[in-house]
Amino acid sequence: MRADRYVRRMLLIGMGLGYAAVMLYLLFVRHRYPMDGYAYNLVPLRTIESYLLNRDAYNFDTWFKNLFGNLVLFIPIGIFLPLLFKRLRRMIPFTAACVLILLAVETMQMLLKVGSFDIDDIILNTIGAWLGLFFTYMIRGVAGIGPLNGLADRESSKASNE
C-alpha cells in the first residue's frame, strides 16, 4: 500500500508542477509585451464592475477571459494545494496561502511590466480556487473517500482494522 501512496503522491506533484509551469507561461510569457509604466488597480470591484456594467464597451473575448478566465484558470489551485499540503485543508489557511501566492503573481506581473496589479484579479482568482476546494470536497464525498483526511490516516486505520 505504501508504494501505491507514493506513486499517487508523485503523480499529484507532477501534475501540480505541470499546472504551475503552464500558469507561469500564461501569466508571464504568452501574449505579454513590456509595458511603458506600471499599471495597477487597488480599488476592489472596480474592474469587475466595469466589465459587468459596460459589457458592450468590451469585445466578448476580452470580457469573457477577464471575468471567467480568472475564475476557471485558478480552480486547480483549489485541488492541488489541499491534496498536497495537509495544513491547507481548512478554509482560512487555504485562503491565506492563495492570497499570498496571488499577491506575488500580481506584483511580479506589474514589476516586470508584463501585466498589471489588479486587486480584482486576486478576488476572482481566489473565488476560482475556492471553487476548486469545493469540488475537491464534493468529489471526495461522492466517491466515499470522505473529507480531506490524509491518505496515511486512512491507510493506517485500514491496517489497524486488519
Describe this structure in words.
The chain is mainly α and 162 residues long. It has one domain (2-161). Helix content is 70%, strand content 2%. It contains seven helices and two strands; from the N terminus they run αβααααβαα. The chain has helices at residues 2-28, 46-53, 60-72, 75-84, 91-111, 119-142, 151-161; strands spanning 40-41, 117-118. A two-stranded parallel ribbon has the order 1-2. Helix 1 (2-28) packs antiparallel against helix 4 and helix 4 (75-84) crosses helix 6 (119-142). The protein is globular. The two termini are 13 Å apart. 18% of the residues are buried. Mean pLDDT is 89; it is low at 150-160.
Question: In a nutshell, what does this entry contain?
Answer:
By secondary structure, the protein is mainly alpha-helical. The chain has seven helices and two strands; from the N terminus they run H-E-H-H-H-H-E-H-H.
